[in-house]
Amino acid sequence: MQNKKAGNINFFSMHILLVIIMLFAVGCGGNGAGTGGGANAPTDHLSLGERFLLELEYEQALFHFLALIEIEPMNPRGYTGAAQAHVGLGQLNEAIAILQLGLEVLPDNADILDILEEIEISLLGQSEIFSEQCMILLTEIARLVAYGNYEGAMEKSANVESWRVGPDPFSRYIVNTIHGQIGIYATENYGQMFFHGEFSEKNREGFGVWFNPHILSKGEWANDMPNGHFFCIMVRPSTKSFL
What we know:
- This protein is 52% helix and 22% strand.
- It has helices at 2-34, 42-54, 58-71, 76-88, 92-105, 110-125, 132-146, 150-157, and strands at residues 170-177, 180-187, 191-200, 203-211, 215-222, 225-235.
- Strand 1 (170-177) and strand 2 (180-187) form a beta hairpin.
């Protein structure tokens, strides 16, 4: 009888212990959700950072890439992703600072060096032609095109300051951004046009998207001309004929 009673006490004690463990686990899960949606693992921060970057939610993206740096400082994507988020927020100097921090941990990392060089070119090499605010806008347009948001790119292109270099009726200027090269063209017939895609020096060569605030086409180029595989895919209201 005494053994049976002892067995019941042991069973009851184990039951209470299991309940306590379950309550503790639920409590920990709740705390994680309250401090960033439960994204505690490096892979969670990485995927959320990429998602928010794609959705142009730069502050959210920055939060997750900075968290990734803290948890996994040897992952270069934390630094490059945070830099891209800073660029999206118009914080070019902060983008450079986070990349330089990455180089202290990962010297000679090619991804970090490439983006750092592109941002520095944007700040220094092109400041004589375009204002810093315009460079931020061009970087944003390049991002929108790179992610397939053509309508957004067309809309923003209307805000780019007009420019012209010399008497050439087809003047051009190629801007390097962290989302690829974008060419700005002062055309006599079509006004200011943009090309985002592949270049051979200053010539359009390969796949690209050709657009202004009113019309957008994409296809293949060769020797700076459409090579036949080129088609219009979007026309916005108030468009004059471009044919």
